[in-house]
Amino acid sequence: MPKTTVSRLSNGMRVASEPCVGNTVTVGVWVDTGSRYETEENNGVAHFLEHMFFKGTKSRTQTDLEKEIENMGGHLNAYTSREQTVFFARVFKEDTGKAVDILADILQNSNFDQTLIDREKSTILREMQEVESQIEEVVFDRLHETAYRGCSLGRTILGPAENINKMTQAMIKDYVDTHYTAPRMAVIGAGAIDHNELVKLADAHFGNVPNEGKKSATFEKAVYTGSEIRERYDDMPEAHIAYALPIGGWTDPDTFPFLVMQNMIGMWDETMPGGQFSRVPLIAKSAKLRMAKKIQAFCTQYSDTGLFGVYAVGEPQALDDLMYNVQGAVTDFAYDVDETLLEQAKKAMIIQYLGVADGSTQVCEEVGRQILSYGRRIHPVETVARIQAVDAAAIKAAASKFLYDQCHALASIGPTHEMKDYVQMRRGTYRLDC
User: Fold this and answer.
1) C-beta separation of 337 from 434 below 8 A
2) I need a labelling partner for 52 at 20 to 30 A (CA). Which of 73, 172, 336, 401 fits?
């Protein structure tokens, strides 16, 4: 298996690379910042900044950037999450130096002209409208809002419209000066790449990035609150519901048991045949009794907390039965574990993981995320071993610690009149028949 090599520049910036088969390279910069590091006043600035990095630099116009990438046959992209911001380019190996140069240029020399900022506001507001039309996205935003009430982790990545409308050059520059520092950034490469060459390129292009910000970055501790947000719209055809319980963060010892539990419940929607014959009781009943059109388990983790649960799109007249079975699917892990289903889930996870580890972009994303989350690359062999080590006892122990008799968080949108109230549903986190 390929080895990941990690170095550190004199300013504290990490450089990591992992070779892959092929003639392409994915190189990117992972930054340990996101919407979680914002305040209520500047919520949305991290995502806004991501847009502004592509609007031109002191030496390249936006058109120049687009043409340069296009002429290389490359691909340049970025995304912002709650805890990380990522910029990456996929190019042929002979263009690795050009890609690093472009990434360094946009991250250090971007033109934050107020005219460009004002022009971009309408683009982001349209993006916000598009997100609001995607009910699943909205439900998970509401889930974070209720689970982490009053915390930065509960705010959306795009921020509220009023913050977008008042965004200024000073706010953006202040955020960059505070968070885009060398110790919080990592240059990552994967594919047909030489590590020593990448280190030289990183040192030449990022060696002058300061090792500390003009102000200290604020990290607000996440405080979970068992609670719910229900938005009732009786004219909608289905109810969209996210039900979750709090778990540990990425480095928690029970991370892998919960990832296996997620795969044990799995994902199903009404377009998939044979759901009524599923070994997963929740899916079999949902398909047979037409309680739901979609079932999807999720395990969302951050540096110090996480949410484990089920997202469901349910039939209005069957929500009582649906939520009873959703809660049962989650709570039952503390009581009974289907050994056959457990082994199936572990095998499926390993196959999926090794399949994703094929392309340079997927490997680069995995390495970058792990360098920021764990401080190291977890080798695929170690990942497979950790998955294989999860047994019924580990599942029960993790479920008993985090899922049994705990206050849940719930977000729902749609015709939810058939759902029990919070207090009644709270009783579904334990069983009385044992």
Assistant:
1) no
2) 73
Tell me which DSSP letter residue 190 carries.
Answer: E
User: Six-digit token pair at 137?
Assistant: 């996205």
Contact 425/410 with Cβ under 8 angstroms? yes
Q: What angle do CA 412, 42, 230 make, to 5 degrees?
A: 10
- Residue 434's pLDDT is what? 46
CA dist., res. 246 & res. 409, Å (int):
8
Contacts of 107 (CB under 8 A, 6+ apart): 29, 53, 87, 180
DSSP notation for 2-68:
---EEEE-TTS-EEEEEE-SSSEEEEEEEES--GGG--TTTTTHHHHHHHHTTSBBSS-BHHHHHHH
Helix, strand, coil share of the chain (percent; to 5): 45, 20, 35
Q: What is the pLDDT of residues 204-232, one digit of tens each?
A: 999 999 999 888 888 889 999 999 999 99
H helices, E strands: number in the chain: 16, 12
What's the CA angle centered on 246, arms 240 and 248, to 5 degrees? Answer: 135
* Residue 415 phi, psi dihedral angles, 5° rounding: -80, 85
Torsions phi, psi of 291, nearest 5? -80, -30
DSSP state of 100: H
pLDDT surpasses 50 at 139: yes
Contact in structure between 28 and 91 (CB atoms under 8 Å): no
How many CB atoms are located within 10 Å of the residue 340 CB? 8
DSSP label of 216: P
Q: What CA–CA distance (Å, rounded) separates 310 from 299?
A: 9
Residue 104, SS3 per DSSP: helix
Residue positions annotated with a catalytic role:
50, 120
Task: Measure the CA–CA gap between 431 and 102, rounded to whole angstroms.
Answer: 57
